[in-house]
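Structure first, sequence second, as always.
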């Protein structure tokens, strides 16, 4: 085109509305939103329906230990594992596409929020859940992982479990019947290791029995601390694999130095 002076001008582009395409896009809007809502779940690697989630949170005394941060040494030892876990849970309550949740805290014993053991719907209930985590007392006591999982499985309607823990179980609701333990000093490291192995066996046997009765709930394990040595790491991987959940390692310290996530 040319204006009255004879100089060629550049016309603005003309846009045409594709009404058919727009209609299709609007019809698919809900599905698009659902796909994007799943993104945090996919990024984190969490498995399960996430409609009724049970957070199982280790509150044993070792959770007071500081958490090294390999990617930023200047921040090393500023936060405990407990601070990291409570912050993570509050973040996930706001980002994972969950419908409702319950929190099981465990050390020597268990406590459940809410005490009714009924799922709290996310939305208005998110504040209650976050407050429960933020105001929970300091970690203390032993690690009764079996009792915590028994409690989680007993909560009616649960379809996803997310377990946060930093070590081997050293408490159990069941008697440990291992002849070799009777000859060992109860304060020795050999006794502690063998006791933990026996506790893990009870946990695996229990989960297998639940699966046999149709209680197929993915357990997503968030492992804290040094899971590269000993029984702890491989046992958590086995627990996640056995239940078709995920193993999500969070780096900790070992004799060889600081480990990355």
């Amino acid at each position: 085109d040319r204006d009255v002076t004879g100089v060629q001008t550049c016309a603005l582009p003309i846009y045409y509305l594709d009404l058919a395409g727009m209609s299709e896009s609007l019809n698919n809007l809900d599905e698009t939103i659902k796909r994007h809502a799943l993104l945090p779940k996919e990024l984190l690697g969490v498995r399960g329906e996430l409609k009724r989630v049970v957070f199982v949170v280790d509150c044993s005394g070792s959770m007071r230990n500081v958490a090294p941060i390999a990617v930023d040494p200047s921040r090393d030892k500023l936060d405990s594992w407990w601070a990291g876990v409570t912050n993570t849970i509050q973040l996930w309550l706001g980002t994972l596409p969950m419908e409702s949740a319950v929190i099981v805290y465990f050390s020597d014993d268990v406590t459940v929020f809410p005490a009714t053991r009924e799922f709290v719907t996310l939305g208005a209930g998110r504040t209650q859940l976050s407050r429960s985590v933020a105001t929970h007392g300091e970690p203390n006591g032993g690690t009764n992982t079996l009792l915590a999982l028994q409690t989680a499985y007993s909560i009616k309607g649960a379809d996803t479990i997310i377990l946060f823990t930093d070590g081997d179980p050293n408490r159990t609701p069941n008697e440990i019947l291992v002849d070799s333990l009777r000859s060992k000093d109860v304060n020795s490291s050999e006794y502690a290791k063998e006791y933990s192995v026996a506790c893990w066996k009870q946990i695996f046997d229990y989960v297998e029995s639940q699966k046999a009765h149709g209680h197929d709930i993915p357990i997503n394990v968030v492992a804290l601390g040094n899971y590269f040595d000993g029984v702890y790491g491989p046992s958590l991987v086995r627990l996640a694999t056995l239940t078709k959940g995920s193993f999500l390692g969070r780096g900790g310290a070992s004799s060889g130095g600081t480990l990355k996530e």
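Margin note: The longest helix spans residues 189-212.
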